[in-house]
Amino acid sequence: MRILLTGGLGFIGSAVIRRLISETEHEVLNLDKVTYAGTHTSVQSVSDSNRYHFSKVDIVDGPAVTDAFASFRPDAVMHLAAESHVDRSIDGPGEFVQSNIVGTYEMLQAARSYALEADIMDRFRFLHISTDEVFGALSPESPPFDESTPYDPRSPYSASKAASDHLVRAWHETFGLPTLITNCSNNYGPFQFPEKLIPLMILKSAAHQELPVYGKGDNIRDWLFVDDHAGALLRVLEEGKPGETYAIGGNSERTNLEVVQQLCDLVDTQLGDNGARQELISFVADRPGHDLRYAINASKIKDELGWEPSHSFAEGLAKTASWYLENEWWWRPLLTERYEGERLGVTT
Ligand code: NAD
Ligand code: TYD
Fold this sequence. Notes:
By secondary structure, this protein is of the alpha/beta class. The protein has helices at residues 11-23, 62-72, 86-91, 94-117, 156-175, 197-206, 226-239, 256-271, 299-305, 313-326, 328-337, and strands spanning 2-6, 27-32, 52-56, 76-79, 125-131, 179-184, 187-188, 211-214, 220-222, 224-225, 245-248, 253-255, 281-284.
């Protein structure tokens, strides 16, 4: 297949590209705006391949997106480009409306015109990668989210992703575009920008800095190792049914405090210096509108497409901690030039 992938210099998109180039015969065009979250170093292990192509495009730029379709002539789209950090959506929601909503609209329009003109509507695929955060917040007792959970987004990030999901569904129902939607839980793993909980805590704890846990640390996330997510996305693209949604999760619910404590212990062990890093944990002002719990029931993708995560949380977390401790070449320039680890997303 010829796959037009958006957001491939980011965390999940780069994991998908590394897998597409190293484990399949597919050819990829990566469209990315190269925001603060995008870096070519995340795909440098495969970027010499003649099956990898890159074009610097802001997906909000409709004519540029249309040109990319016309020149690359894809069989499928994997749409990951988005602003992705809840705290930044509190500080500056406008970019989220532009990239996540308007950008998805431009992708859908360009895909629809291209598939019609090329007369490949039946076999074309448009996979939209979304989040479980569109479903809102669960109480500790509620059953996990699944494909029938009503939308109830509560942050500017999740509201913009929910809007994009609605557009994708509308383009399927109204215009017959063969779309697929995935809603996945929190990812972690190598090459994640160090503003997100897990990489931030690894790097701060390694440097003996305070570890800011929001509120009481009792918020719960369902963690999935990024390479498992990449595998699920390829499975949905190749075998999913157009018009369907697939919920993807890791069966690994943890409180934030548990995650940070486990990371402190891993970093202590891996650096071999008995740094007593749990003492660096500091409870700080909560995130405004902080969703209490996310969790996914992933039985549909397991039963219908035979996908299950292959990493346990303990394995994935240990791999991730080692990767950050061994790959300063990747994260040091980001911390120096783009984000120094300061608190984001406080409204007062
Ligand atoms: P990321 O922030 O690491 O990367 C986003 C990429 O998109 C960057 O390379 C950035 O340059 C690019 N981008 C942003 N705006 C763009 C625009 N207007 N035009 C072109 N490129 C643009 O994000 P991520 O964590 O890799 O997430 C990828 C997708 O997966 C997002 O759609 C996100 O909503 C979804 N998702 C993420 C998670 C998670 O835990 N990270 C979980 C479920 C779903
Ligand atoms: P994050 O990685 O930003 O993902 P999301 O908000 O999409 O779930 O945050 C994960 C959880 O960790 C979330 O409950 C907020 C919390 N958190 C902290 O406690 N401290 C931090 O410094 C960060 C970045 C997040």
